[in-house]
Design goal:
This protein has 205 residues and is mostly helical. Helices cover 64% and strands 0% of the residues. The protein is built from eleven helices and no strands. Helix 7 packs parallel to helix 9.
């Protein structure tokens, strides 16, 4: 098992009903690879995973995917802001987020559940809220716009949530992205259009 495979196994092979004991078990990722890790290597793994998320995560359950992606967002995604990571790698790593949304969130969340929200739906919606990204960065704004363009209400809602928070750092850019989407999606569900209007003003929860 190479380093990438060991990292995936550690993140996504945990039982769906893990009681917290998974991290107490020996893992090849920690035993052989983690100590030699670097920000650039982390960024490369994230780009590889997100850019091929549909195939790489196919065998995992929704809950396993949710837990693994949340771990990456919490503990790894910040490298895409690190100056120790080459600009091209940072940029392509960020752009791979759109593929994650298209191949995982859009493909797996066909109907949103407002009550007893599944873990995957929660991670999708909160992704740009909890991710340690610079929401005013031009590339991140492009990612938000491309995610908003996906034909998936959960992905659109997640992007609008992110744009609502981006309003604090880049109000004109965030407003322009929402305005373009509203103009192109006049027949979108009214609740989503209403949320877009709120996001345009930075009024999201």
């Amino acid at each position: 098992m190479n380093g990438f495979e060991a990292w995936l196994a550690y993140l996504f092979d945990r039982p769906a009903d893990d009681d917290g004991s998974w991290d107490d078990q020996p893992h090849e990722w920690f035993d052989r690879y983690a100590r030699q890790d670097t920000p650039a290597a982390t960024a490369e793994r994230i780009r590889e995973l997100f850019g091929n998320a549909g195939s790489l995560l196919r065998r995992h359950s929704d809950d396993q995917v949710a837990c693994g992606v949340r771990d990456i967002v919490d503990d790894g995604l910040g490298v895409l802001r690190s100056r120790q990571v080459p600009v091209v790698l940072r940029t392509t790593g960020l752009r791979s987020i759109v593929t994650l949304f298209a191949e995982v969130f859009a493909a797996r969340i066909s109907v949103e559940q407002p009550r007893n929200e599944p873990q995957l739906q929660s991670v999708c919606f909160m992704f740009f809220d909890i991710a340690p990204l610079d929401l005013g960065d031009d590339t991140v704004l492009d990612v938000l716009e491309d995610t908003l363009a996906l034909p998936s209400v959960p992905c659109q809602r997640a992007a609008l949530h992110g744009l609502g928070h981006a309003h604090c750092q880049a109000p004109q850019a965030a407003q322009a992205i929402v305005d373009r989407w509203l103009a192109r999606h006049r027949h979108a569900p009214q609740e989503v259009r209403d949320y877009a209007t709120a996001a345009r003003a930075g009024q999201v929860m």
